[in-house]
Every structure is written in C-alpha cells, then in structure tokens.
Amino acid sequence: MKQFDEQATQSLFEKNLITENQFREIKEYRDLSIFSLNAELKLFLYLSVILFTSGIGILIYENIDSIGHIAILSLLLIVIAVCFFYCFKHSKGFQKEETTFEHPVLEYLVLAGNILTCIFIGYLQFQYKPFGEHYGLATLVPTIVSFFCAYYFDNRSVLTIAITGLAAYIGLSVTPQDLLKSNDFYASQNLSYSAIALSVLLILWVVYSRRISLKTHFGLIFLTFALHIASIASIANMTSYDTIAWMLFTLILAGSTYYFYRTSYDYKAMSLYVFMIVYAYIGANIFLFRIFENIDFSDIWELFVFLLPAYFIGSIVLFIKLIKNFHKEISE
C-alpha cells in the first residue's frame, strides 16, 4: 500500500498537479508513519451499542417476572429519553445535505436510542397491546420513528433499521437467511410482487431525493436494499413451475441487472456492481437450465462433463476481469 501511495504521489507530481513543495511535504508526512484509529474506535462504539441493547433484551427476558412490566418499560423510556435529549441538544438540526455531529459518540447514541425505541414499542405491544390486533402498526410506528431519526440526525445505521422495518411491514424479512427461507417466495407470488414493488419504491425515492437534493448520500443504501430484494425475489420465482411466472421474473431480473449496471457506474459503487454480476450470473444459469430442461442430452453428457470445469473457470476469470475493468474505469 505504501509503495502504491508513493507511485500515485509521484504520478501527480510528474503531471504537474502538485508543486515540488507539496510533493516534499506529502513525502515527509508519510515518512512519519502516522495511522488513524478512527475506524477501529467507531467499530468499538458500534459493538458497544449492540452489546448494550442486547444486554437490555437479555435482562428483560431473564428477569421479566421479578422486575415487573411497568418497571421495565419505565427504565427503557428513561434511557431512551436521555439518549435523545443529548442528541437533540447537540445536533445541528435537520439539513438537506450531509451533516455530522461534532462528537462521533452522539451518532451512536442515536443508534442506541432508536434500537431501544423499537424494543420499547415491541414490548409494549406484546404485553399490553395498545394497537390491538393490528400488529402491523407495532412495526410501522418504530419504522416511522427510525426514518425520522435517520433523516434528522443523518444516521445511516438507523436508516438501515428503517428500511428493514418497512420491509417487515409488508411481510418481508431482509436478512440473507430469511430472504432465502422464511419469506417463502415459492408459495406466495403476492409476496414476490410486494418485494418488487418495494424495490421500485426505493428506487423512485432515490430518484426523487436526487432531484430535490435531499440526503443524496443515502441513495446507495436504498439502492443496495432494492438490488438484493428484487434480485432474490426474481431468482426464487425463476424456478417456479408456472411458465408465465418464471418468464416474467426473468425479464424483471434482466431489467434490474441493466438498471443497476448503469447505476453502479453512476454512483461508482463497487458493492452494487459485484452483487449485480453475482445475481445476473445465477439468473442466467437458471434461465439456461429452464430453456434446455426438456431436451435430451443423454448422448452428449460426456461432453458436458468435460466442459463444465472450463465453464466455471472461465466464469471466474471473466468475473475478475469485469471487476478490474470497473475499478479502473471509476478510478480514472
């Protein structure tokens, strides 16, 4: 990495993009071997929030009979109030462009307060049912709170909670394991259509946000959720026995692949590009299998066995080449 940085600096100097004095100062600074602990400290802060909120949940579970429901809810409410009091006090208020707290700890206080709010509302509904039998409201309310906190405090972590809550409200679970198992796309095409509709909604919101310049840096998060939800729903339905259904979702996956191919260049997002290729590759193989599933290849199966290793090796080489070309193009 050090050698790469030195070559890059030398290239800038040779192109007269920096002066000789700037080149010397950069070299002297790098010779000090100073490195930043910012990422590591933020990771520990994030883990602290996760462990704290998990500890609250375990405490409630193990002592629910001895502590009492009112005491637990009161404790949660006090902690939530303290978190948001400090956050509102030190925030710069809502702004359309990207903003940050003066102290990074406050960003994780927002996350802690938001997670505890979700726990509070969920526990309140489970024990006292203030929303009656409308359990969807118990999901929608913390989702609305999460969206408000995400945009007011400019917090990406809270935004992921909000989008997850929105997906859960329409019946989706957006963890990788749940997407493949619990959502049961195979049994319910209505759920698949809901997933596609949610993906389109997220994309439209990104387009609208860019038009009005509202937290445009959130766009990549929305698009990442949209890519995963739409692609997995499409791939799951491409194995359907319904011919119309699998052909329809093949077209949806093709359209999704084209859109995210262009969007990955627009945002210069390697993550979007990589997952787009992976989903497109899986979908293409399923499509080929569905096309040739009724053809008898018994006479030439040995040829397929011979070509199969070459196919996978070629796929890997092509994947690496695509990634390298993408990185080169967005770096120029």
Automatic annotation (TrEMBL):
Its keywords, alphabetically, are: Membrane, Transmembrane, Transmembrane helix
Transmembrane segment boundaries: 43-61, 67-88, 108-128, 134-153, 158-176, 191-208, 220-238, 244-261, 273-292, 304-323
InterPro entries for this protein: DUF2157 (IPR018677)
Pfam families registered for this protein in UniProt? DUF2157
Q: Does the keyword Transmembrane apply?
A: yes
Q: Does the keyword Transmembrane helix apply?
A: yes
Record domain DUF2157: where? 12-158
Q: Which residues form the signal peptide?
A: none
Q: Provide the protein name.
A: DUF2157 domain-containing protein
Origin species, per record, is Flavobacterium ginsengisoli
Lineage, top ranks = Bacteria, Pseudomonadati, Bacteroidota, Flavobacteriia, Flavobacteriales
